[in-house]
Amino acid sequence: MGREAVLDVLSRTEDHLSAEDIYMCVHETYPAIGLTSVYRTLDMLVNIGLVYKFDFGDGRARFELAEGPKGKDHHHHLVCTDCGRIVNYRDFIDEEVALLKKTEEGLSKKYNFAITNHLIQFYGLCEACRKK
Amino acid sequence: MGREAVLDVLSRTEDHLSAEDIYMCVHETYPAIGLTSVYRTLDMLVNIGLVYKFDFGDGRARFELAEGPKGKDHHHHLVCTDCGRIVNYRDFIDEEVALLKKTEEGLSKKYNFAITNHLIQFYGLCEACRKK
DNA sequence: TTTGTTATTGGAAACCATTATCATTTACAA
DNA sequence: TTGTAAATGATAATGGTTTCCAATAACAAA
After folding, report:
1. pLDDT at A73
2. Is A38's CB less than 7 Å from nucleic acid strand D?
3. At what angle do helices B2-11 and B35-48 cross, to 10 degrees?
């Protein structure tokens, strides 16, 4: 039942919300829905493939809508290791995706993996943090 | 002075050990060294750049020696989302690294990031887990 | 409508990798 | 020898996530 609520929150933002972020947003509209249910719902949505779960190294999972009809465009992430800011970039995606696809095929064949997913992230210091 | 002990453990394996794995190995040779020191040492080695820290989504950090004189060859990872098995692959690395470098330059310029690092991982089901 | 059975829910407790605290030991300089 | 600072590790605390479980909702059968 919280399913629509969670998807709704995720569809309204470009940010990468944590479970608790999502809980707080959902809670404004549906105060009855608890944190446990948010975790449960997110888990289910990730399993279904409607939502992606990321780890950017700050100790909590982050979620975003998978691309698709209602979803965002495909993108990868640029993460500031100091302040945690995350940039969605789409500029080099086509080339990356082409290579990833090729690599996936090669890896599938060689290691007998059924590859379902990949992850590309860049880490560094954002402009603000470089100046500190 | 667990530094050598930790590096030694990491240099003897192709596995991706957790902090506790490393602690247990170190403990056999140096029973005096505690878990806290292992965490501290790992943190320092990661900061220095001698060791890489990874997250494969199972809730604990994994460590491996950075490539270099004493280190392993550069590789990326293929992770089984069911059993957690991790394969180091080196087959497509050259192409990947070339593209990553190019992408890094583009991203640095466009978003004013000082990029220090990148991450490529593939997720899927290994042969054994596909048959379950 | 009642009754019984099952699935869903959320609050609180448990879990567990990691981090912080702090008393103790070690290193080393004066 | 003595005093000060750094290093160490056992223990406690932290905090995101999971588990437990009693309460509620949903729904089927009578």
Report:
1. 87
2. no
3. 70
pLDDT score for B2: 82
CA distance linking residue A82 with residue A123, whole number of Å: 10
Q: How confident is the model at residue A67 (pLDDT cuts 50, 70, 90)?
A: confident
Q: Report yes or no: A2 and A38 within 8 Å, Cβ to Cβ.
A: yes
The residue range of the domain holding A65 is 1-70
Residue A59: band (very low, low, confident or very high) from pLDDT cuts 50, 70, 90? very high
CATH code where residue B92 lies: 3.30.1490.190
Cβ of residue A68 closer than 8 Å to a chain B Cβ: no
- Note the pTM of the prediction, 2 decimals: 0.91
pLDDT mean across residues, chain B: 93
List Cα–Cα distances, B106 to A76, B21, B47, B115, in angstroms: 14, 39, 25, 11
Instruction: Tell me: do B57 and B84 sit in the same domain.
Output: no
Nucleotide closest to residue B35 (CA–C1'): D9
Q: Is nucleic acid strand C under 7 Å from A2's C-beta?
A: yes
The pLDDT, as a whole number, for residue B70 is 62
**Domain-ending residue, one of B53, B72, B91:** B72
8 Å CB contact of A125 and B113? yes
- Residue from A77, A60, A17 nearest B113 by CA: A77
Q: Which nucleotides of C are covered by protein (CB under 7 A)?
A: 8-12, 16-21
Calculate the angstrom distance between C1' of C1 and CA of A32: 29
Average pLDDT over residues B28-44: 95
